[in-house]
Please model this.
Amino acid sequence: MKVVMATNNVNKLREAREILAPLGIEVISQREAGAETDPEENGSTFAENAMIKAKAVYDIVHCPVFADDSGICVTALDGRPGVHSARYAPKGEECAKLLAEMEGKTDRRAYFACVVAYMDEQGSGTVSGECHGSIGTEARGTNGFGYDPVFLYGEKTLAELTEDEKNAISHRGKALRQLCEVFRKRYGEDHAEQ
Ligand code: IMP
Model:
C-alpha cells in the first residue's frame, strides 16, 4: 500500500522509506502527493505537532497519511531542546551549540523522542518511540542528520552507525514499526498488494 508522509525533511523521509519498505509500505512524500503545505507547529507536545502536520496533508490528499514530530531531550537541560529541537540553532550548528551548553555537565543522559501521528478514513491516532543514550563530548561520524554526531548509543554516536543499525534502535524506527502494525490491522496482511 502507499502512504503519504507529511514532511519536507528528506532525512526523515529516507529513514521512513527504509524502515517501511521491507514491511510492504511504500512511502510517498507530501510533495510527490501534491500537498504543498507547511503548517505552523504551534503545539506544546510532540503528539500535538505530529497531528497538526498529518491533518494538514490529509485535508488535501484524503488518503492514508502519517507525520513524525521528534526531538532530543537532555536531562541536565530539564528536557530541552525537546519539541523545540528543530529551532534550537541554525541548521548545521545544533551539535556545536549543544556541546557548548553541556560543557562541564556530568549528567550526560539524553533521549530522542518521536511521535508519529496517522490519519485515514477510519480515523487518527499516534504511536511513539524513544531512544535512550547520552551526549558525548565531541561530534563524531558523518551518517544521519541533526544531533546524531553528538548522541552516544553505547560506544558509538548515531552518526557512526549505518542506516540499518540506526533504524533498528532509533526512536523513529520503534514508532514506525508500530505504525506498520496499525496499517496491517486496518488494511489486512496483504496490504502490500493494495
Ligand atoms: P521536527 O520534528 O520537524 O520538529 O524536527 C525535529 C528535529 O529534531 C530535527 O530537525 C533534528 O534536529 C532533531 N531530530 C529528530 N530526529 C532526529 C534523529 O533521528 N537524529 C538527529 N536529530 C534528530
Remarks:
- The longest strand covers residues 123-135.
- Residues 2-192 form a domain with the Maf protein fold (CATH 3.90.950.10).
